[in-house]
Structures are given as C-alpha cells and as structure tokens.
C-alpha cells in the first residue's frame, strides 16, 4: 500500500483535506495505485450522482470529483507513478466533463424559461459552441489552473418560449450562468476558475459571440497574438438536446479558425509581428519584475527566462508560419507539435529532445508548486527549507535539482533567443548568392533605364495594383527599385523586368509574398535570374507563387528531391486533413497534393535553369514525382469508391495503374499529360463497379482544377476500346484484348508502357502480357507497311505549313526515331530478349546495333540526334514556344542522320 507521508510532507492542501475528511486517506491509498484515465474520472462522477439533481447538487458533485482527481494525481505524481501526460490529460478531461455537465444543466434551465434556440439550417435545437483555449485546448491543463474558454453560437433569431430572448441574449445569459457553477468556492471548494478574456475584444466584448461576428472580427481585427492563442483552440463536445446536430456549426467554426491561424502560404507577413510578440513577452516580464522589485525573473518557471512560455513560443512559431502548408503541424498539444516538426524535418532530433525534456521538467515542477497549497502559482520557493523539500519531493538533492533546473532553463532561453533561426526564417544579412555562373551583363543604355522606369510606373497605375490596400502598395513601391536592380544583372534587363512585373501583379494582393521578398532580398535576384532565363518559368512563378518561399534556402532548392521522404511526409500531411466529424477533408487533400507537385516541379525547374540536370535526368525526376502522386491518389480515392459510409473492401484495392507515352517511357516534361490505363484483378464480379468508380475518382482527383490549380491532364484513350471502353479493365480482359483485338499501333504503344502504382502482382501480370505481345513473331515486311501507314497518319494529323522544321513531327524528327525503335522491338524481341525491357529509345537503339539489326554508325548518329532534339524541344518549351520548331539549317545534320537510319530500317 502506498505511503502518503512523503506527499503530506510537501502538501499543506492534502494535510488540511485529510483533517477535514479523514476517510479520504484510505480511499487515496487504494485508488492511487491505478492510472487516472478519462474512464476512471467518468466512473467517479457517475458514482457521486445525487438522488435529487439540483444546481447545488451538481456543484457539489463536480467539486467532489475534482477533489478525487486532484489528490489522486498528487499522490501518484509525488511517488513518480504518474506521467506528465496522465496528469495533464486527466485535468483536461475533468474540465471537459465539468463544462459539458454545467452547460447541459444551464441550457435546460434556460430553455424552460425562454424556449430553445433553433438552428435555421436544420430546424433542430441549436447548441452553443465552447472552445477550450490555452493548455486546456492542448490537453495540457495544470493541476490548479484557470480554464480559458470562448463561447459561440451559429445563426440569429429569437427563442419561442414564455419569455423569448434573442439568441445574442440567450447565449450570453447561458455563458453568464455557466461560469459560477465551475468557479464559485463553497464548502466543497471550487472546480475551475474561468477566464473569458481570450474572446474577441476581451473584457469589453459580449460574453458569447455569433459565428458571423467572429468571422468579421477575424477578417478585420484579429491580431497576431490572437492567431497565436487560437493555435490551441479546441472545440469541446457539449450537447443538451439529443436530437440536435451541432456538427454543421462545428464545421463552420473550424472553417473560420483554420485559415485565421494557419495561412495557406508560408506566413512571412507575420514575421515582424511575431518578432514584436517575442520582444513584448520579454519586455512585459521585465517590467513586472522591476515593478515588484523581486527575484521573479529567476523564480517564475512559467514566465521567467527559460520558462514554459518560451518553449511554447519556439514550438508555436513554426506552426504559425508553416502550419497552413503542412496540416500535420496543426497540433494543439505541444508534444504532438514537436514530434510533427521533427517528422517534417523542421526541427532536429536533439533540439526536440532537449526542449521536451525541459518542458516536462518545468511542467512537473509547476505541478508540485501547485500541489503544495492548491494554488495557481509558478514561483519557486525563496526560502531554503521549502526549496529543499521541493527537491526532495522530486527525489533529488537540492544541488542536483538546481543543476537540472538551471541547465534546462539556460537551454530554453537560448532557444527562445534563436527561435527565428530554429524556424529557418532568421533574417539573412549575407550577400546574395548567385544562382549559376553567368557572363557579365552588358552596360545598359539610358533608353533601357528609362524603359525600366516606365514599366514600374505602368505597373503602379494598373487597375489591379490601384486596388491594393495602402500597406501592400507601400511594400510594392519599396520593391520596385530592387526588382529593377535585379533585372539589370540579367542578360535582358527590360524583358526580365517586364516578367518580374507580371509576377508582382499576380502576387501583390497577398501581402505575405511582398513581405517575403522584402524580408529576404536575396530571393529577388534569384527570382530575376529564373524569370530572365525562361518566360515559361516566369509564368510558372506567377501562376504558383506558393513556391516563392523555396527561393530563400537556395542550397536546399538545388538538392535532388528525396522521393521516399516526400512520400512519407505527404501521407502524414494528408492524414492530418480531417474535418471535425472525423472524415477526410478531400478539398484540402487535393490542394495539398497539387501544392507538392508544384513545389517539387519548381525545385527541378530551378536546378534545370542552373544547369544541374540533363534533359534525361529531369524527365526521370518528373516521372518519379508523377509515380508518387499516382500511388497516393489510389490510396486516397479507394475509400471514396465504396458504397456510402462503408469501409474499403478489400482494404487495399486489387488495382494497378499502367502508364503509356511520356510517363511510360520516363520522358515526362513539366506540362506533359499522363496517358494511363487502369487494370484490376478481382474474381468477384460485384466489385467491378467499385473499380470503375475508383478509376473515375482517380481521374477527377488528378485532373480537377481546384484553388491550387491542376495536377495533371489525364488521357485514357489508350485503354482497350478507347473512349468507348470501361475506364477500368480486368487484367484478363486486357490480356485477351491485346492478344486478339488490338491494332498494331496499340502494340507500338505498349512497347513503352510500364506499371507505375498499385498492386505489384497486377503489375507483374501486366509486364508478362506486355512481353508476350512483344515476343509474338511478326512478318517484318507486312508489319513495316503497317508502321509506315501509321507514321503517315501521324504526319497528316500534324501539318507544318511554316518554313521551320518541327523537330518532333516532321520527317526526320523524333517521331521517326520512336517509330523505328518500336518496329525493331516488335519484330525482333522474340530473337533478342534484351529488346523486351522498357529502356527508352536511346538504350534500345544501342541494343539493336549490338545485335547488328541496324548499322552501328547510323545508330550512334541517330541517338545523338535524338538527344539533341530533346534538348532543343525542352529549351524551346522553357522559352514559351507552343511547338518545337527551328530553322532547318540548325538541325540539318541531325535530320539527315535520322533520315539515313529510316532509309536503312524502313525501306
């Protein structure tokens, strides 16, 4: 049996309680052996239920259960049997339970007097929304703490009772009557002191706010510290009418809270305010210390240097700046927030470990201080004896306790001072880093300088810019000289400046983007270099300004993407996109995947412009990105293909995605379509409709235009029977079609098809079908005629009436190389199995030459021509060309090489 003496030695509150209620000692000794869980607290509450249920009886019941929770946790904690998580969760659940029971009582009482508010959307009783703030919101409540809450309601109207009240009056009155049930002190003590000061307008605002008023407040008056406070805002579950459906209002509140706290873009607009907030935290504390002429700076473990509040600031800074982009960071609980930041590679393991160790030590110390007299205090004892008893209660000597406390606080304070560096948003003062070695720009003429000035004036007087709020216009005016200066460092200043202005016109309405450029001036030169190098890249920046923040850390931007890590993080972020009812937030998930696609594509674009990637490597990387996103799309859309509200059956679909065309050949470009075929292998015919729905969902998921843009255009015409066929086909049906019905051009297409995502067993079966098709013996002469006929149809479908050479479609271009390769594979793979593998045109032509199917010299010349054509095509696309055409003399040698090989192979 647990000895209470060590707890009694420390806690005067426990000594007084046992004098008043001696029987509590035996109860505590018995109960403190077991963890205090929400279920245990609920059982204690139910066991204390009075026969006659009055408001006074409820007050007594709540205070008695609070007494049990408080003292049981105390005994367990002092004996090192309770973790910080157990203590904080138990107190937070007690607060949830107490508020919900008090709300239920007052709501029924007011409904009897004034009638029940009715939800105008459902016609059902309207519940109040109660938001737990601060540590309560994060399930981290202290053992002797206030609870911070905000009360809200949805809709306007008037009750229909004997004494009707407007909803504003009704819910204000409900809040007013709710609080004393919790905070009044009587013979049994109190439950929780309550604090409403975090509501909009604080003490001068209404007690209860409508969601319409809250929305208006967030849009026009919400301040940075309120965003900081609402990070921990958690809607507690309260319900006083069985038939009410509060989830509609709950969802609306979440739709207001999330964008207020977490901006979709990295929120550099908030940096100055957050720096001010950090400084204000420090200055406010210093003023209090000076005013009290005390040692509180060292003795207050919450507000003093290296205290709990500084840890919270370090952790929540990253949440505020980046949480809108990464939903996994949107955690109310501090431990969960730190782990999410480690997972997202925003905080290193060692920093996280030390911060959490310090947090746990300081929070446990805080609890011990509050156990002493059941007071909300954060002050360490100033007399040596009490301080020694505190250390002893921890199981430590005075010196050891002091050493650990000081080490934790010193580390925390240094981390607080370095918070913006830790978050990766510290102001940079170093010189701008060049993107890639460039030749010195020619000196500009006075006419060019005049043109740049004229462009700036034209931008300032455009309709869109004229509608900007004053602070955004002022920021833009500060940026324009910096833009001109950056443009002057490029080869074509006037054109580059024009492109930069197009970007500015698109992003100026989002002041955070302007703040980013002013905060990190080196990003302006990087943006200018990219925009100057490629009009297509400039258009990409204007279209997806979300990627601008990646210009801050140029070294990271130039590193190769880690697709394994990206896939893991993406799944975490998508899992975190959850509606209040627990369902997946599909719109946010689709946007998040589009944002990732744009960010990684821009990363590759920057590396491309910097000259770090060959066309082949770039295509491989873009194809790997598409593979990743298709795999995740299957995972996200399979639950959506089920009959309503049914779990996925089977849990993982027997379904595979086959890529043809550019993705199939790993030759994807920045804006390439995806040619896809969907296969399934399920003997249960009842499942067919599910796989068809899955296919439709996937196409929609990949190609629908959302607020974040579109991921990919999807083309399904290469499936069996084309547009007339089912969107998903069984692998058996696919095999039968390919062997008995497919046209020769479909066999040409399958030479560069590959399994990219889904069930690998179906992928293996597809590869066998593909190889069986390629291994068929064909009459080279007859098949050659079919290939030539198809080549002529392709040429007719892409007429070129210009004087330029179309490097893809004209005779002697890329299509000729592709057709020759396909012909060689389909005619000779049965003799030379090395041709079976989907290795790409360059490798396959090399294999054909090794087996003397084509002259080695002509093969090498055609391979070099193909590489040159791909490079020209890529560069022309970056320059914004709709089609890849060049003067014939520029590629005459390459065209001649292709025509020579065509003559040798196809004639």
Automatic annotation (TrEMBL):
Locate the Glutamate-ammonia ligase adenylyltransferase repeated domain: which residues?
A: 5-241, 525-768
Broad EC category: transferase
Query: Does the keyword Nucleotide-binding feature in the UniProt annotation?
Result: yes
Which GO terms fall under molecular function for this chain's record? ligase activity; nucleotidyltransferase activity
Entry keyword ATP-binding? yes
Alphabetically sorted, this entry's keywords are: ATP-binding, Ligase, Magnesium, Multifunctional enzyme, Nucleotide-binding, Nucleotidyltransferase, Transferase
Q: Where is this region: Adenylyl transferase?
A: 422-907
Which InterPro entries does the annotation name?
A: GlnE, GlnE_rpt_dom, NT_sf, PII_UdlTrfase/GS_AdlTrfase
Q: Where is the region Adenylyl removase?
A: 1-422
Q: Which cofactor does it need?
A: Mg(2+)
Which domain of life does the UniProt lineage start with?
A: Bacteria
EC numbers, comma separated = 2.7.7.89, 2.7.7.42
Q: What does this protein do?
A: Involved in the regulation of glutamine synthetase GlnA, a key enzyme in the process to assimilate ammonia. When cellular nitrogen levels are high, the C-terminal adenylyl transferase (AT) inactivates GlnA by covalent transfer of an adenylyl group from ATP to specific tyrosine residue of GlnA, thus reducing its activity. Conversely, when nitrogen levels are low, the N-terminal adenylyl removase (AR) activates GlnA by removing the adenylyl group by phosphorolysis, increasing its activity.
The family assignment reads: Belongs to the GlnE family.
The molecule here is called Bifunctional glutamine synthetase adenylyltransferase/adenylyl-removing enzyme
């Amino acid at each position: 049996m647990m000895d209470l003496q060590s707890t009694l030695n420390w806690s005067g509150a426990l000594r007084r309680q046992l004098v008043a209620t001696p029987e509590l000692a035996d109860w505590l000794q018995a109960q403190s052996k077991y963890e205090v869980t929400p279920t245990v607290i609920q059982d204690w509450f139910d066991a204390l239920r009075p026969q006659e249920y009055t408001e006074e009886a409820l007050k007594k019941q709540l205070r008695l259960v609070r007494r049990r929770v408080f003292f049981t946790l105390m005994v367990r904690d002092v004996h090192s049997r309770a973790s910080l998580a157990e203590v904080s969760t138990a107190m937070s659940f007690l607060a949830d339970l107490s508020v919900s029971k008090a709300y239920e009582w007052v709501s029924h009482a007011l409904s009897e007097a004034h009638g029940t508010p009715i939800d105008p959307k459902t016609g059902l009783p309207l519940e109040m929304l109660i938001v737990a703030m601060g540590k309560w919101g994060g399930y981290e409540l202290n053992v002797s703490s206030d609870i911070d809450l905000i009360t809200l309601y949805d809709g306007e109207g008037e009750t229909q009772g004997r004494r009707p009240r407007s909803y504003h009056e009704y819910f204000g009155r409900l809040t007013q009557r709710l609080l004393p049930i919790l905070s009044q002190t009587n013979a049994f003590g109190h439950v929780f002191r309550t604090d409403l000061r975090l509501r909009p307008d604080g003490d001068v605002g209404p007690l209860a706010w409508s969601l319409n008023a809250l929305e208006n407040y967030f849009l026009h008056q919400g301040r940075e510290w309120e965003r900081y406070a609402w990070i921990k805002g958690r809607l507690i579950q309260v319900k006083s009418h069985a038939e009410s459906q509060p989830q509609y209002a709950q969802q609306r509140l979440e739709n207001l809270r999330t964008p207020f706290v977490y901006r979709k873009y990295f929120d550099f607009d908030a940096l100055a305010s957050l720096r001010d907030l950090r400084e204000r935290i420090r200055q406010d504390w210093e003023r209090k210390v000076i005013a009290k002429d005390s040692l509180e700076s060292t003795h207050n473990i919450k507000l003093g240097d290296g205290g709990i509040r500084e840890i919270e600031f370090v952790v929540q800074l990253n949440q505020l700046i980046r949480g809108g982009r990464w939903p996994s960071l949107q955690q109310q609980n501090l431990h969960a927030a730190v782990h999410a930041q480690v997972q997202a590679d925003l905080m290193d393991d060692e920093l996280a470990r030390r911060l959490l160790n310090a947090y746990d030590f300081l929070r446990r110390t805080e609890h011990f201080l509050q156990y002493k007299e059941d007071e909300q205090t954060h002050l360490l004892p100033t007399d040596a004896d009490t301080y020694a008893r505190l250390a002893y209660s921890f199981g430590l000597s005075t010196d050891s306790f002091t050493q650990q406390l000081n080490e934790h606080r010193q580390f925390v304070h240094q981390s607080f001072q370095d918070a913006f560096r830790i978050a990766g948003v510290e102001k940079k003062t170093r010189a701008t880093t060049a993107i890639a070695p460039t030749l010195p720009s020619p000196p500009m003429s006075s006419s060019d300088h005049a043109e740049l000035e004229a462009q700036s004036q034209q931008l300032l007087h455009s309709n869109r810019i004229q509608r900007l709020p004053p602070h955004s216009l002022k920021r833009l005016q500060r940026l324009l000289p910096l833009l001109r200066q950056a443009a002057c460092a490029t080869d074509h200043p006037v054109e580059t400046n024009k492109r930069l202005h197009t970007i500015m016109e698109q992003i100026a309405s989002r002041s955070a983007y302007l703040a980013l450029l002013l905060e990190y001036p080196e990003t302006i030169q990087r943006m200018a270099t990219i925009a100057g190098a490629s009009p297509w890249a400039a258009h990409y920046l204007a279209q997806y300004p979300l990627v601008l923040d990646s210009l801050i850390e140029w070294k990271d931007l130039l590193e190769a993407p880690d697709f394994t890590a990206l896939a893991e993080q993406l799944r975490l972020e998508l899992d975190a996109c959850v509606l209040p009812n627990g369902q997946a937030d599909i719109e946010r998930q689709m946007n998040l995947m589009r944002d990732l696609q744009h960010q990684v594509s821009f990363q590759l674009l920057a590396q491309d412009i910097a000259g770090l990637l060959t066309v082949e490597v770039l295509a491989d990387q873009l194809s790997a990105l598409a593979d990743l996103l298709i795999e995740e799309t299957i995972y996200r859309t399979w639950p959506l293909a089920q009959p309503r509200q049914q779990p996925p059956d089977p849990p993982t679909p027997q379904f595979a995605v086959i890529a043809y065309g550019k993705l199939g050949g790993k030759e994807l470009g920045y804006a390439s379509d995806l040619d896809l075929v969907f296969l399934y292998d399920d003997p249960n015919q009842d499942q067919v409709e599910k796989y068809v729905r899955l296919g439709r969902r996937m196409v929609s998921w990949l190609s629908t235009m959302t607020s974040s843009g579109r991921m990919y255009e999807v083309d399904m015409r290469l499936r069996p029977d084309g547009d007339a066929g089912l969107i998903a086909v069984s692998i058996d049906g696919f095999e039968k079609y390919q062997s008995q019905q497919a046209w020769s051009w479909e066999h040409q297409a399958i030479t560069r098809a590959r399994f990219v995502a889904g069930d690998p067993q179906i992928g293996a079966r597809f590869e066998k079908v593909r190889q069986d098709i390629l291994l068929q013996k064909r009459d080279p002469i007859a098949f050659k005629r079919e290939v030539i006929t198809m080549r002529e149809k392709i040429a007719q479908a892409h007429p070129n009436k210009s004087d330029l050479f179309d490097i893809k479609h004209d005779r002697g271009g890329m299509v000729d190389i592709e057709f020759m390769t396909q012909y060689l594979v389909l005619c000779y793979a049965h003799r030379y199995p090395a041709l079976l593998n989907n290795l790409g045109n360059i490798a396959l032509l090399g294999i054909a030459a090794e087996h003397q199917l084509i002259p080695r010299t002509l093969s090498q010349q055609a391979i070099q021509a193909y590489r040159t054509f791909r490079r020209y095509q890529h560069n022309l696309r970056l320059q914004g060309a709709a089609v890849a055409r060049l003067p014939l003399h520029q590629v005459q040698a390459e065209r001649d090489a292709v025509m020579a090989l065509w003559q040798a192979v196809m004639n």
